[in-house]
Structure formats: structure tokens, C-alpha cells
Design brief:
The complex is a heterodimer of chains A (267) and B (423).
Chain A (H helix, E strand, L loop, with lengths): L2 H4 L3 E3 L6 E5 L13 H4 L4 E5 L20 H14 L5 E6 L1 H12 L4 E7 L17 H13 L9 H4 L21 H12 L14 E8 L5 H10 L4 E8 L3 H4 L1 H14 L2
Parallel strand pairs in A: 2-3, 2-4, 4-5, 5-6, 6-7
Antiparallel strand pairs in A: 1-3
Chain B lengths: L10 H6 L3 H6 L4 E6 L4 E4 L1 H7 L3 H4 L11 H18 L1 E10 L5 E12 L5 E10 L1 H47 L13 E7 L9 E9 L2 E9 L3 H21 L3 H15 L8 E11 L2 E9 L5 E3 L5 E3 L17 E7 L4 E5 L20 H11 L4 H15 L7 E7 L11
Antiparallel strand pairs in B: 1-2, 1-5, 3-4, 4-5, 6-15, 7-8, 8-9, 9-10, 10-13, 11-12, 11-14, 14-15
Chain lengths: 267, 423
């Protein structure tokens, strides 16, 4: 299966526009960008995708080894960049995808014109001299919640829905489909996300970087946003007047405007 | 229904004229309403009681996520809240509430976004059901599944280990088995010699053995035998037999003497070990013009079959010889024969004649020596190679019925090219 089908890649907006790649985080899929993508697509060439294992990606391409750490997710990003021959792109990573963007740009810096880190956190679990906001037990509780809620995922339906992006009618009518994930895959992604430590990668960021955090976000609190800002030389920090961890849903206009302004500057 | 319908039961009226406020406050489930950012603006008494909190602690001060455990908050922020935003509703989500006393309360939450006339989302209404029993049941199911997975993983590992151990044992057995027969038969001028060892099971050892070796002065020695029983013990005795015969033949190649020496060696070894004995034919070949004179002695071993150049087959009986190693003395029976061009002499161990027939025919359901003789008669005349090929085919046909190892040794003289062949 080619990369476009594997990662359910969707490209919208003007062909000659500056490329803006929107990367979803842990939990749901590219639908999270549904309020932001159409706004950006008026001006830019917007690339949307699902990580392998999420959304309508090809589940057969998932392996525990590859996706046990964030390297596997960065490999997905770079696979898509190569396949679509994307250059001078602005990468927008939500939540854990912010760090995936940092890792991708470190590997192939030539492709990236800028990074937008939307509610990033380089490490979720507290460490000596660092407050990520969570303990290892909290992460176990999250894993238990994943076990308790399958959100419309069913082993019998999954083969029909996944990897069949050409037939949206198969899945859309089902509730909770945007966060539907094989429980084993969700567990692996949760571990890769919440047990990662990308603090050391921040100093290596060479491209213009915009950090967007929210006024109130329990997953990526403001002090974590400030930490990322301080660790990336020359970065800019903007705090959105939004609550929660998904400003692209709760404050889509402000989020889209901030991304658009940064993208224009990077041209 | 009104009180009028049941005038005789006036208490119905009081029951049914419940106030909406009371219905809300003391419903059998929790109600909570929040703004879109999660701030709690209304909560019923049932839920407050469950939480162990006063209304003014909660309303306007806490967000819905603040009622959850930390792991639950993570789940709420990464799954619940975005799905609710995208779908406008979400149902039956298992979460845990954190009570004021620090306890945990498993609940099932269903939420719906209330939209204003302009289509803008205004607030989120949620119902909260006690999910304690349901969660306990699910946890039991999950635990059972985890146990099953663990058991399966353990079983897989045990099976892999057993398979590896079996392969290792088979390697050891194959090495032992090879020590009972020569790696290849020597080239004897004027004689064609072909052997075959049929292994009944790679997991067991039969005690079959054979050899063909030079004695000097144009003479050759050979033997073929079978130790009673199976397994490493039988194989060790077979190895003893093989090397005793080989070493003794260097001093005195006479077949009768060889069997006597072997009998003594095996009988002396029996003292306090499991009793092993064997059947053997030992022989000697001497070149005579265009053929060989063959002398052999049999100790309790099935008689060889002579496949004649002119067709037909006969036993060369060694009946009367006794088993080797069982008694202090073992009288053997000696046979003299001539191998003429086109003749083939076939030695075999009893795995072949003792094989169970698929249809239960033969001697007591065993293939038997009469069937073997008839088979040999049908294939004669045959070169040793052709005879062994036919016998190997027969063993394959008998298949699983051959439950003991079988050794075959065929000695023959090439047919006279001028001799008339049988049609």
C-alpha cells in the first residue's frame, strides 16, 4: 500500500500555496482539524493525514516496534514528505505531534520552513527540577480508561473501515469514529506519548518556531509552554484565550489566524 | 393518570405530583451542566452527595474535569472533550469521579451539547450513572482476558522450549543412530552391496546395526543384527555388538566363532542391568571365479532370502540358532551358499516382517515372512540396488505400520551380460 493510502493523506487548498501540514495528536485523528483546515485552505496547500494506527490509516502497516516510540511517528511524517515531495513546509503539530515535528525537522531540516507547536509538552511525567504535570500512576490510570472505553472500535468492523478512505460511508455513520482506535494500538500510542522525554531535542531546533499554548490546559499547562519557549532559541510564544487541550476545536478562529500569520511570515 | 382514576388510593396523587425541582435534585442519577469550557453551572443533589461536596464548592468554581481522577482527566482531554465538540454528544463513557474524601467512584457519563437558536453551542448537559457494578464486572472480564493471554504466552513458550528440546534430542538420536552403521559401504570388487536404514520414529532409537568390511586375502566380512527393545540402552548394546564383531573378526573371521564371542560379551554385561539380547547374522564372503562363496551363521535372526538370477526367491534357513546374549552358550546355525551372477542375497531385520498391515491381513495382522518371500519372488531377479529400492517402497507402503527400525543389506553379483533375461 502506498504512503498516501497508508496514512490516509488528504491535500486541500491551492496547488501553488505554501504547504501547511496538520498533524493530529494522541486520541483522535485528522478530523480534529475540521474547523481549522478549511480556513487555512483558502490560502495554503493543506496536508492532512492519520498516523498509522489512527483514524482511517492502514492498520496492517502498524507494528508495535515501529510505533513504540515517537521515532516511528516521525518516520510517518517524513515518508509523507518524501512521497508528496513536500518542501519549505510549515509543520503544525498538535500535542505530542509537536515533538514529532521537532524530531522530523532535526532529521531532514531542509524540508521545514517553520514549526508550529500547538500545546506542546516535551515530557508529561514530572522529573527532578521539571514539572510536566503527571506521575507514572496517572499514566496508568489513563491506560485503564483506554481499556474501559473502546469508543466504537470493534474488531469485526475495523477491517472494513480502516484503510478504506475511499468509502467513507463505511465509517462515518458510527459514533465516536474520530477517536476509534484498536485498544492495543491506543495503548502503544499512549505509552509512546506520555512516557516520552524530548526535552533534549528542543535545543536542536533550527527553524523558526511558533509555540501556541492555551490559557488553561491541564495536559500542557502554561509553565510547560514557557519551558519549551525558553528551550528553543528564537522561538515565539503565543497564548490563546482558550480552555482545554484542543484549541483547534474550542478556539478554531484564533488558532487558524495564528497559524496563518506565522505561515505568511515564513514565506 | 390522576387521583380521580383511583379515588380509593389518594396517596397516588402525592406521588405523581412530584415537583420538577425534586425530580432533578433527587433523581436516581447525577445531573451536571457546564459551559463549553467545562465550568460547572448547575449540579443536582444526587451527584453532590456522591461527591461529598457542597453546592457552593462546586458551582462556578470547578470544571467537570476537576471531578475526575488525573488519568480520567487525561482521557477526558484527549478523547471525551474533542469527540463531544465534534459530534455534539457522547454516551456511556466509563470514568472515575474523585470524591471529596479521596475515594473513587466509577461512573458512566453521557453528555450532550445544547445549541442556541443561532447554532452556537451554549452548554453541555451530562448525566452520571453509578457504574460500580458494571466496572467491577468489566474489570473481572479484563482480568480474565489478561490471565488467558498470560497463560497462552506461557503455553507458547513452553511449547517452543519443548520443540527445541525435541529437535536437540532428535539430533542426538540421529548421531547415535549413525554410529550403528557405516557411513558408506566399502567398494568390494565383483560385488554389489546396498544397504538401507529405515527409521520408524525420529524420537526413538531402534537397535539395528550392520557392517561390511575387508578381512584381507580377497575375503570380506559382514553382519546385520537387531538388539531387543528401543532407546539409548538398546542403541548402546547395538554399538557394543557392532564393535565387538568388527574387532573380533580381525583375529578370527569365522562366523560361528564371532557369534560365540559376541554372546559371551553380551552375557557378561547383563549382570545387574536391564536384559538386552540380540539377533544377528554374521558372515564372510570369498571371491570364487565370477561369484562369491558366502558362509554365514545365524543366532535367532530372520533367515535371509536369495533372489535367484533365473527368477524366484527362497529362504536360506538359519532356524535353530538361539538369541545372542541371553544364555551362557548360544549355539548358532551355519549356512554355506554360492552367489552366482544375477543372484542377490537379502538380509533384513524384523521391523519389516513385524510391520502391522493396514487391513489387518497377514500373520496376526503383521506383514509376515510368507508375504515377504512372495514379494521377493515377484521382484526376482533383481540387483541389490533394485531389491533395496523395492523393499524401501514396500516399507513406505506399510507406512506407520512399521513401528520398529528396519535395516536392509543386499549383496549380489552383477548378472552375466550373456545370460538370458527373464521376460
Amino acid at each position: 500500500m502506498d504512503v498516501r493510502s497508508r496514512n490516509n493523506v488528504r491535500v486541500i487548498g491551492p496547488q501553488d500555496g505554501r504547504v501547511v501540514m496538520l498533524a493530529h495528536g494522541f486520541g483522535c485523528d485528522q478530523n480534529l482539524w475540521r474547523l481549522v483546515a478549511p480556513v487555512l485552505a483558502q490560502e495554503f496547500r493543506v496536508v492532512l493525514f492519520d498516523y498509522v494506527g489512527s483514524g482511517r490509516s492502514d492498520l496492517a502497516a502498524w507494528s508495535e516496534e515501529r510505533y513504540a516510540t515517537l521515532d516511528g511517528y516521525a518516520a510517518d511524517v517524513l515518508d509523507i514528505c518524501r512521497d508528496l515531495d513536500l518542501r519549505d513546509l510549515v509543520f503544525v503539530g498538535h500535542s505530542v505531534s509537536a515533538m514529532v515535528g521537532v524530531m522530523s525537522a532535526a532529521r531532514e531540516p531542509g524540508r521545514f520552513a517553520g514549526l508550529v507547536l500547538l500545546v506542546p509538552s516535551p515530557r508529561y511525567v514530572d522529573d527532578e527540577g521539571y514539572r510536566g504535570g503527571f506521575s507514572a500512576e496517572d499514566i496508568d490510570e489513563l491506560l485503564a480508561s483506554l481499556e474501559a472505553n473502546y469508543l466504537g472500535w470493534s474488531a469485526t468492523m475495523a477491517p472494513l473501515i480502516m484503510g478504506n478512505p475511499d468509502r467513507p460511508e463505511l465509517g462515518e455513520e458510527l459514533t465516536n469514529s474520530f477517536c476509534r482506535t484498536d485498544p492495543n494500538i491506543a495503548r502503544a500510542f499512549a505509552r509512546a506519548t506520555f512516557l516520552s522525554d524530548s526535552r533534549a531535542d528542543l535545543a536542536g531546533v533550527q527553524v523558526p518556531t511558533l509555540i501556541l499554548d492555551c490559557a488553561e490546559d491541564m495536559i500542557a499547562p502554561r509553565e510547560v509552554g514557557a519551558y519549551v519557549h525558553q528551550a528553543i532559541t528564537g522561538s515565539r510564544l503565543v497564548t490563546l484565550a482558550a480552555t482545554g487541550h484542543c484549541p483547534q476545536l474550542s478556539a478554531p478562529d484564533a488558532t487558524a489566524a495564528a497559524i496563518a500569520a506565522f505561515t505568511r511570515e515564513s514565506m | 393518570m390522576t387521583a380521580k382514576d383511583h379515588p380509593e388510593e389518594p396517596e397516588f396523587a402525592a406521588l405523581l405530583e412530584d415537583s420538577p425541582v425534586d425530580l432533578y435534585e433527587n433523581a436516581p442519577c447525577g445531573y451536571v451542566s457546564t459551559l463549553m469550557d467545562g465550568r460547572i453551572v448547575k449540579i443536582n443533589q444526587t451527584l453532590l452527595t456522591w461527591l461529598g461536596r457542597a453546592r457552593d464548592e462546586v458551582v462556578g468554581r470547578m470544571r467537570f474535569a476537576d471531578l475526575l481522577t488525573v488519568g480520567g482527566k487525561l482521557y477526558h482531554e484527549t478523547h471525551f472533550a474533542p469527540l463531544l465538540r465534534m459530534q455534539g454528544e457522547i454516551g456511556g463513557i466509563a470514568l472515575e469521579l474523585r470524591t471529596a474524601a479521596g475515594g473513587r467512584l466509577p461512573v458512566l457519563v453521557t453528555s450532550k451539547v445544547r445549541v442556541g437558536p443561532d447554532g452556537r453551542p451554549l452548554l453541555i448537559r451530562s448525566t452520571v450513572f453509578d457504574g460500580g457494578d458494571r466496572r467491577a464486572y468489566e474489570i473481572e472480564l479484563l482480568r480474565a482476558r489478561e490471565e488467558a493471554e498470560t497463560a497462552r504466552a506461557l503455553a507458547d513458550r513452553a511449547r517452543e522450549a519443548a520443540q527445541a528440546e525435541r529437535r536437540r534430542l532428535q539430533d542426538v538420536l540421529a548421531t547415535l543412530r549413525r554410529s550403528l552403521v557405516p557411513p558408506a559401504l566399502p567398494d568390494v570388487p565383483g560385488l554389489e552391496a546396498v544397504a538401507h536404514y529405515h527409521t520408524a520414529s525420529p524420537d526413538d532409537l531402534g537397535g539395528d546395526f550392520y557392517d561390511l568390511y575387508p578381512l584381507g586375502d580377497g575375503r570380506w566380512g559382514f553382519f546385520l543384527g537387531d538388539v531387543s527393545g528401543h532407546g539409548p540402552g538398546a542403541a548402546a548394546v547395538a554399538s557394543l555388538a557392532r564393535y565387538t564383531l568388527r574387532a573380533s573378526a580381525m583375529h578370527d573371521p569365522d562366523p560361528t566363532s564371532l557369534l560365540a564371542i559376541l554372546n559371551t560379551a553380551m552375557y557378561d554385561r547383563q549382570v545387574d542391568e536391564e536384559t538386552y539380547y540380540c539377533t544377528v547374522i554374521a558372515g564372510m564372503l570369498t571371491r570364487t571365479g565370477d561369484g562369491f562363496a558366502v558362509t554365514f551363521a545365524g543366532g535367532g535372526h530372520p533367515s535371509p532370502i536369495l533372489l535367484r538370477a533365473g527368477g524366484g526367491a527362497d529362504y536360506l534357513p538359519t532356524t535353530g540358532g538361539v538369541l545372542i546374549g541371553l544364555l551362557p552358550e548360544a549355539p548358532s546355525v551355519t549356512v554355506h551358499a554360492e552367489l552366482r551372477p544375477g543372484d542377490t542375497l537379502l538380509f533384513y531385520t524384523d521391523g519389516l516382517i513385524e510391520a502391522r498391515t493396514a487391513d489387518g491381513s497377514g500373520d496376526d495382522g503383521r506383514y509376515g515372512d510368507q508375504a515377504l518371500l512372495a514379494f521377493a519372488g515377484r521382484i526376482a531377479p533383481a540387483t541389490p540396488a533394485a531389491a533395496i529400492a523395492a523393499m524401501t517402497g514396500l516399507l513406505e507402503e506399510l507406512g506407520e505400520g512399521v513401528d520398529d527400525d528396519t535395516a536392509l543389506l543386499a549383496l549380489g553379483v552383477a548378472p552375466d551380460p550373456d545370460a538370458p533375461t527373464r521376460a
